[in-house]
Amino acid sequence: MNAKRTDLIATIVIDLIVASVVGILFFLLAYILTAGLPHVSWSFLTGATDAFSGAGGIGVQLFNSFYLLVLTMLISVPISLGAGIYLAEYAKDNWRTSLIRSAIEVLSSLPSVVVGLFGFLLFVVKFKIGFSVISGAIALTFFNLPLLTRNIEESLSAVSRSQREAGLSLGLSKWKTELGIILPVALPGIVTGIVLSAGRVFGEAAALIYTAGQSAPVTNFADWNPMDPASPLNPFRPAETLAVHIWKVNTEGLASNAAALSAAASAVLIIAVLLFNLGARLLGTYLYRRVTASK
Amino acid sequence: MLKQYSFEETAVQTFDDKTSLAMKTENMQVFYGENHAMFDANLAFPKNQITALIGASGSGKSTYLRSLNRMNDGIATVTGKIWYHGVNINEPGVNIYEIRRHIGMVFQRPNPFAKSIRENIVYALRANGLKKKAELEERIEQSLKGAALWDEVKDNLDKSALSLSGGQQQRLCIARSIAMAPDVLLLDEPCSALDPISTVKVEETLLELQKKYTIIIVTHNMQQASRISSQCAFFHLGHIMEYAPTGTMFSNPQIPVTQDYIAGSFG
Ligand SMILES: Nc1ncnc2c1ncn2[C@@H]1O[C@H](COP(=O)(O)OP(=O)(O)OP(=O)(O)O)[C@@H](O)[C@H]1O
Ligand SMILES: [Mg+2]
């Protein structure tokens, strides 16, 4: 077989594989959206859920998902930024570093339901925090940290060594070089990673069922004092998220229109995740232009 | 088959007390782990002159140069003395950040920051506490003029440095170094990634700069060494074999290894 023919066949096979992947994705998206979107309405997006049957709107769940996301990111981004900078720049190549790396790898491969159960036993039961936003956020942090740390480390390491040498040769300290020269170049990659992980966190259910809980008590959206039990910002209240809601409506929902409800909620979830992906791209490109001053 | 030369037979010039020196190394050794890469380096660099370091690939030119401003810290072990203004800067207590501000460096591949042209020059200045806007603007203009880049970029200072050509980027790196007002400038094959026209520009720049700075330049190009340098040191397998005024070195090399290298019948 000559080289040209081999090339042709390989190209066709690869094209077919790509086409089927794209095809499956579009089929899934089209299916979920056509099944769900007709049931989505303003009152569905903002309305309250009937606590007993699970029927009604998803307003509180939608808010909970975003609130949990913000809280999770507030905890996990600074930690993984520190860890990523440490691993990329300061960690020596020795057994301790490889131990840290293995630990991160193991943590990233823990099934999320196990992380959820761990969070349940430790925070909910042992520390008596109860089903709460904060328990959920910490569980999600465990689940989020390893991937985010890896992403940050890789984005930093991808910046050429010569950039570091340039900084050091001008008498800048290692820390100043890292923060002022390397981090801006790596920022688009880091931000993309953060937004993508936000999409993952937003769609996570298993880790939250036993930590953030499965109930969405009616909250008073006029009360923004985080200390009040009825305030939506209170981190110690149980908070069923959208993904958990879908799971619940499907498994124990008593509403007569459970199928339509979960289809609609799924469509909303998918759209949110797609928006995160799109946002990651746009923000990444925008930031790259900003920091490198290229128009 | 590589010819064997004796490392005992060397011809390294020294300077009398009347010559004012910018820097000097005494019995400097460099080790990369177990690998002994630089042996007994004794060189002195007269002020306001260009000294060229030549030699085959792997002979230790970069190793030597990078030791001078402690850029080998954390990469290699450097022993011996490096004299700079009467201070041995190869001591643990020395402030290496301060040293590097006085002894600037330009690398083989242009490495401007992924920032605007202006930021490339002022970033390190600001980090060192220079905040006055007027003075920063002054430094930008002076350094870009010094590196013969001003006319080409003066209307586009906010453009990304990455959008410049390779030769312009390298001159920006030179400008960035001289903006720190160093007194020694180390250059490691600054023209190897450049086309002939950019090379000529950089060489002219260096000839102009030697009025204010002491320049030590590594080059693979013997024509370049003879065009711009006053002193020339020849490196071979981690040893400094010959050090002499450039004219003498090229017209009348003292020892066989240099003679062969310059005649191009090396190895
Ligand atoms: N970072 C490093 N780690 C280990 N060994 C190194 C390192 N850098 C250089 N060496 C070794 O030191 C010796 C001298 O290398 P050096 O880079 O100084 O040579 P050079 O004269 O600059 O060569 P070239 O002209 O190719 O740049 C070589 O044997 C090289 O393998
Ligand atoms: Mg070199």
UniProtKB/TrEMBL annotation, chain A:
GO molecular function, one term: phosphate transmembrane transporter activity
Superkingdom of source: Bacteria
Keyword match Amino-acid biosynthesis: no
GO CC term, one of those recorded: plasma membrane
A GO BP entry: phosphate ion transmembrane transport
Keyword Transport tagged: yes
Ranges for domain ABC transmembrane type-1: 62-280
Family matches, as Pfam families: BPD_transp_1
Spans traversing the lipid bilayer: 12-33, 66-87, 99-123, 129-148, 179-198, 258-280
NCBIfam families according to UniProt: 3a0107s02c
Protein name: Phosphate transport system permease protein PstA
Upper lineage: Bacteria, Bacillati, Bacillota, Bacilli, Lactobacillales
From TrEMBL, chain B:
Cleavable signal peptide: none
Pfam families (UniProt xref): ABC_tran (PF00005)
Biological processes per GO annotation: phosphate ion transmembrane transport
PROSITE patterns: ABC_TRANSPORTER_1, ABC_TRANSPORTER_2
UniProt xrefs under SMART domains: AAA
GO cellular-component term (any): membrane
GO molecular function: ATP binding; ATP hydrolysis activity; phosphate transmembrane transporter activity
Keyword annotations of the record: ATP-binding, Cell membrane, Membrane, Nucleotide-binding, Phosphate transport, Translocase, Transport
Keyword Membrane attributed: yes
Domain ABC transporter: 23-262
Stored NCBIfam families: 3a0107s01c2
The protein, known as: ABC-type phosphate transport system, ATPase component
Origin species: Levilactobacillus hammesii DSM 16381
